[in-house]
Design a protein that fits this description.
The protein is an alpha/beta fold. The chain is 25% helix and 25% strand. α2 (68-81) runs parallel beside α3 (101-108) and α3 packs parallel to α4 (129-135). The chain starts with a helix and ends with a strand.
Length: 269
């Protein structure tokens, strides 16, 4: 057998494998939602807040390819976990598609938690219709804003920033005078750099989809510019959690990267 024949055979086999993986990723894996349960070590966490359970759902991307049933399954899975607090991490639709703004918010409507449901916007969300739709379902949207909760007699500040809010000085203005336990809600995990510089203890993010398509050996080509593609990351004493999200973008396929909702249990670092 010639070298050319071997290479041709390898290419054909590789193409067949990729085609099969793509079909599997379209028909099955993009719907195979997982519940990720993670203990997050948080520097300076008040003892009273140890064990606080925060639910994170992000990157819904409600569209023709992400159905009401997909979102409803994510919501039901989260409610089964009974979190103390729920955070929505942005990108509720794709490219600001107004057709799905209402349906996306409606599908998220059953979410509830003892300390509330809070949301930020992603780069695919408009600044008016989406917040209004979420607000009609009891979700408080933080657009470059801070809100204070009282949890177990401890102050907890949530600071939510827009995707386009990137300068450290702008984030600093929102966190000035905030409680020692401050959680930065930032759609883009690259805001870990600014959060660490400001000595914020925790950042919750999405945006990466975990890479969405993760190839053997090569990894997630689409998300390598981020400090953490999925799961837990750190910079100095600031912890980060990045969710793989629920929906898909560009192609309705997930490979080696199933969708997720996350239940995060805060623990002392």
């Amino acid at each position: 057998m010639t070298r050319r024949a071997v290479l041709k055979g390898a290419l054909v086999a590789g193409a067949g494998t990729f085609t099969g993986a793509g079909a599997y990723g379209y028909a099955y894996e993009r719907h195979a939602l997982e519940v990720t349960r993670a203990a997050i070590p948080v520097a300076g966490l008040p003892p009273a807040l140890a064990g606080l359970r925060v639910g994170l759902i992000t990157d819904i991307h409600r569209s023709l390819f992400v159905s009401h049933d997909d979102v409803a399954h994510a919501v039901a899975s989260m409610m089964t976990e009974s979190p103390d607090l729920i955070v929505l991490g942005g990108d509720y639709v794709t490219w600001g598609d107004r057709e799905f703004v209402g349906p996306s918010a409606e599908a998220l409507g059953p979410l509830s938690a003892p300390y509330g449901v809070f949301a930020i916007l992603g780069n695919h969300d408009d600044d008016h219709d989406m917040p209004a739709a979420l607000g009609r379902h009891g979700v408080q949207v933080l657009r470059d804003a801070r809100t204070r909760l009282r949890i177990r007699n401890e102050p907890v500040d949530l600071v939510g920033i827009r995707y386009w809010t990137k300068r450290q000085s702008d984030i600093s203005a929102l966190t000035r005078g905030s409680a020692p336990m401050t959680i930065l809600l930032a759609h883009d995990p690259r805001r870990l750099i600014e959060a660490a510089a400001l000595k914020l203890p925790l950042v919750l993010s999405g945006h990466t989809h975990g890479g969405q398509i993760v190839l053997p050996v090569v990894g997630a080509l689409a998300a390598q510019k981020f400090p953490t593609i999925a799961g837990i990351g750190h910079r100095n004493r600031t912890a980060l959690f990045v969710s793989r999200g629920v929906g898909t973008i560009y192609v309705p396929v997930r490979i080696n990267c199933p969708p997720e909702v996350a239940l995060l249990t805060l623990q002392p670092a």
